[in-house]
Design a protein that fits this description.
The chain is α+β, with helices and mostly antiparallel strands. Helices cover 48% and strands 9% of the residues. The chain has two domains: 39-149, Phosphorylase Kinase, domain 1 (2-Layer Sandwich), CATH 3.30.200; 156-439, no CATH class. It is built from 14 helices and eleven strands. Strands 3-4-6-5 form a four-stranded antiparallel sheet, sandwiched between helices. A three-stranded antiparallel sheet has the order 7-10-11. The radius of gyration is 29 Å and the shape is globular.
Length: 487
């Protein structure tokens, strides 16, 4: 098993095990609205929970927590803020142990576990197949410990990822997006690949919620009191359609622009966008795909079918007052844009492939804390220039797509035109766009040269054979005439 817990976008080395067979099951009798209890210093009171061949035992969990507190057990499954300990074969305990205890963002009391327990229950009620199932929440020595199902599987970066798995990731991303739940760290370490191409997301410690007002609330801003007393629900208890429609009325300035979708008429954060620049880009930049162009093409085709197409359908069904003409126009523009994306990505040209890879590369650089940020502005300027070229070569709907991307990129300039994103350039050797597309052209030229050389060589052989055949014919005729005369 492998876990990366990085709510503050920092990658940590972790350990992976071989793929294991998964038993699918669901926790039952979980308290939906836990209230605080002082008894035994325990926050959530729960009974034994039956899982068929095994049971969750609260006493065993508390004993393991005591051993964790007394440092009697160790684990190599950890992340920036927490450690993960197996509780038998089917459960695990997430314990807080920040790598950097001096950091301002440190979590010494496990409030992130409290917040994550809340959102995992919300997700379970939407679709239990999307994320790790919450089992229990235990408070010990003023710290919260999260008990979850123990997910056994592999991670995309370790074993590769196929088209069906990407399809299921995008399906999950769509469901979370329209319900206003943003994972915020959807990289390989937080995605488990299970049997039958199923997938599950883990580590929702840095989630964001779409509020009733159409803006996003960070989990860091949700207090302990609000969750324990269920008042956090008041932030996002509107209907799914109501929260989504509220984004049309929200005029607050956009923050962390790379997390938003590419549709300029939609002000929503996108798990699909997060997955792209965190996982897809890493996969391509580290040569994890055997045929990168084919991999990227397949990803966009899946995105067209399982993200943009259903999102257009969702927007189609949103009911707006017939008197609210401004919002109707915005909804219709958003819907048409999603339909355009679905059409373009269902059969992407090479320039569309380049554009999408340049886009996620820019987002990756803007988010990179290991030196990539200073290359972002240079990358942005080159991308803008390339969009102009692509647009000039395009026709009809593809031209519309490039014009939309230019419109989207206009919003980036105010964010990028600061020293934080300037000073360096991205070398060709570090640029998968150059490597993937220019190498493919070089290989194509090499193949053509090989064909030409082979053809020329074959032609020479053919001429030689023709010459020898002709010589043989002349010799045969001469020999026949001489033989005839002698006779």
């Amino acid at each position: 098993m492998f876990i990366t817990i990085s709510p503050y976008n920092r990658r940590v080395n972790t350990l992976a095990a071989a793929p294991a067979k998964i038993d699918t099951y669901r926790a039952i009798n979980i308290t939906k609205n836990p209230l605080y209890s002082n008894k035994k210093d325990v926050f959530v009171k729960s009974k034994k929970i039956s899982f068929g061949s095994a049971e969750y035992n609260r006493q065993a969990a508390e004993e393991l927590i005591n051993d964790i507190a007394n440092k009697k057990v160790t684990t190599n499954k950890r992340g920036f803020q927490a450690e993960f300990f197996a509780l038998g074969e089917r459960f695990g305990i997430k314990s807080i142990n920040p790598l950097d205890k001096t950091a301002q963002s440190q979590d010494l009391h496990g409030i992130n576990n409290l917040r994550e327990h809340y959102i995992l229950n919300v997700i379970k009620n939407i679709n239990p197949e999307i994320a790790t199932e919450p089992v229990d929440l235990i408070q010990k020595d003023n710290k919260y410990f999260l008990v979850t199902e123990l997910v056994k599987g592999t991670h995309p970066f370790d074993t590769g990822i196929n088209s069906n798995q990407i399809k299921n990731i995008l399906k999950n991303a769509f469901i979370l997006d329209i319900n206003g739940i943003v994972h915020s760290d959807l990289q390989s370490g937080n995605i488990f690949l299970l049997d039958n191409d199923k997938v599950k997301f883990i580590d929702f410690g840095a989630y964001q919620l779409l509020s009733n007002k159409g803006s996003y609330v960070s989990s860091d801003s949700i207090g302990e009191y609000d969750i324990k007393n269920s008042t956090v629900k008041n932030l996002h208890n509107s209907s799914l359609e109501g929260k989504f429609l509220a984004t049309f009325y929200n005029h607050e300035p956009v923050t962390h622009i790379i997390s938003y979708c590419d549709n300029p008429y939609l002000k929503i954060k996108s798990n699909a966008a997060n997955f792209e620049y965190r996982m897809i880009y890493d996969f391509l930049s580290h040569n994890r795909a055997e045929n990168p162009k084919e991999f990227l093409t397949g990803y966009l085709k899946n995105k067209a079918q399982y993200y943009h197409k259903p999102l257009a359908g969702f927007l189609e069904k949103l009911e707006i007052s017939p008197h609210d003409t401004e919002q109707i126009a915005q909804r219709d523009s958003a819907k048409q844009t999603e339909k355009l994306f679905a059409g373009i990505f269902s059969n992407p040209s090479e320039n569309v492939l380049k554009s999408e890879l340049e886009k996620i590369q820019l987002k990756w650089l803007m988010n990179d804390y290991q030196g990539g940020k200073t290359k972002a502005f240079d990358c942005y300027e080159k991308y803008i220039a390339n969009l102009e070229k692509y647009s000039a070569q395009a026709a009809e709907s593809e031209k519309q797509y490039f014009d939309i991307m230019k419109k989207v990129l206009e919003k980036y300039k105010s964010f990028l035109n600061v020293p934080e994103y300037k000073g360096d350039t991205l070398d060709d050797s570090q640029n998968p766009v150059k490597r993937i597309f220019e190498e493919s052209k070089i290989n194509l030229i090499k193949q053509k040269d090989k064909i030409i050389k082979t053809t020329k060589s074959n032609n020479k052989i053919a001429l030689l054979i023709t010459g020898l055949t002709a010589a043989a014919s002349v010799f045969g005729l001469w020999h026949y005439n001489n033989h005839k005369k002698a006779g």
